[in-house]
Design a protein that fits this description.
Blueprint: H1 15-21, E1 29-31, H2 38-43, E2 48-52, H3 55-66, H4 68-79, H5 85-101, H6 106-118, H7 147-157, E3 161-164, H8 167-170, E4 179-182, H9 205-221, E5 224-230, H10 233-238, E6 243-250, E7 261-268
Parallel strand pairs: 1-2, 1-4, 2-3, 4-5
Antiparallel strand pairs: 5-7, 6-7
């Protein structure tokens, strides 16, 4: 199984390293910032709870799980028409109508996947009104989905709990020996490098502090915790009492080639 969307901050390139650090044994798996689900789909945990605060993203998981045939039909219809800027903007407008009316159905999910394949760099970015505003990537042809991959994900999602909401809601039932992977929006590495607009609320310094408190709460319960972030002084200080490892990464989203490398930090409590 592979992620059905490209996601900023996705963990595909870090998966080999993270797999080295995964606990050998754990009870249940929790991922409150699931995004594209790269690690979740790689690990294939038997018992799992995933969540995200982005309702349109979680709707895709729900539609894949419960309404796959309708989703596949609508994706096929969207892919049957060669894309151009006018069609992209039309479908983006339709998607934003779905956001405004809070319609979470199979068409909303299909538009989410289709737009992800036709927008610039696979970004999911919204404005202060919560409306999607990423421009067209000029891609005219090619499928936006792999049918067999979605079928396998659909089967896998049965028996898994899917939550729309804040990380504290997703983690509310974490107990001793559960494994929690926390891949929140990253702390900006500079004032001009801020990208947290997955939702209109964003993810602030206060949210990072709140997340570190949740980390400490679950640590006291005896849960096994692993989190990733930019290697900033702020993050290092928040988690100063836990094991930290610095790793090099490529950041293909940056438009400047000389800024496409950097370091991230992996923090764990075990």
């Amino acid at each position: 199984m592979n992620p059905f969307v490209k996601w900023v901050g996705g963990k595909r390139q870090l998966i080999p390293k993270i797999l080295e650090l995964i606990p050998k044994k754990y009870n249940r798996y929790y991922e409150p910032f699931v995004g594209g689900g790269a690690l979740f789909l790689e690990l294939k945990p038997d018992r799992a709870t995933i969540g995200d605060i982005n309702p349109m993203l979680i709707n895709v998981y729900i539609q894949i799980k419960f309404n796959l045939s309708s989703l596949l039909k609508k994706l096929s219809e969207l892919d049957s028409v060669p894309c151009n800027k006018g069609l992209y903007l039309s479908n983006r407008n339709l998607f934003n109508q779905k956001i405004s009316s809070k319609e979470k159905d199979s068409l909303s999910a299909a538009l989410f996947i289709w737009i992800n394949k036709h927008c610039f760099n696979g970004l999911y970015r919204v404005n202060k009104k919560g409306l999607f505003n990423v421009p067209y990537n000029n891609k005219t042809e090619g499928n936006s989905f792999e049918q067999q991959n979605l079928k396998e994900i659909s089967r896998f999602l049965w028996g898994k709990k899917i939550i729309i909401g804040d990380f504290s809601k997703t983690c509310s039932e974490v107990l001793k020996n559960d494994f929690v992977f926390l891949d929140s929006p990253y702390d900006p590495i500079s004032e001009t490098a801020d990208f947290v607009d997955y939702t209109k609320e964003g993810f602030s310094k206060e949210d990072h502090i709140r997340l570190s408190e949740e980390f400490k709460r679950m640590d006291k319960l005896g849960a096994k915790l692993l989190t990733t972030n930019h290697n900033t002084e702020f993050i290092r200080e928040l988690y100063q009492n836990y094991e930290q490892e610095i790793v090099s990464v490529k950041r293909m989203i940056n438009s400047k080639a000389d800024k496409r490398t950097g370091t991230e930090i992996i923090i764990k409590n075990y």
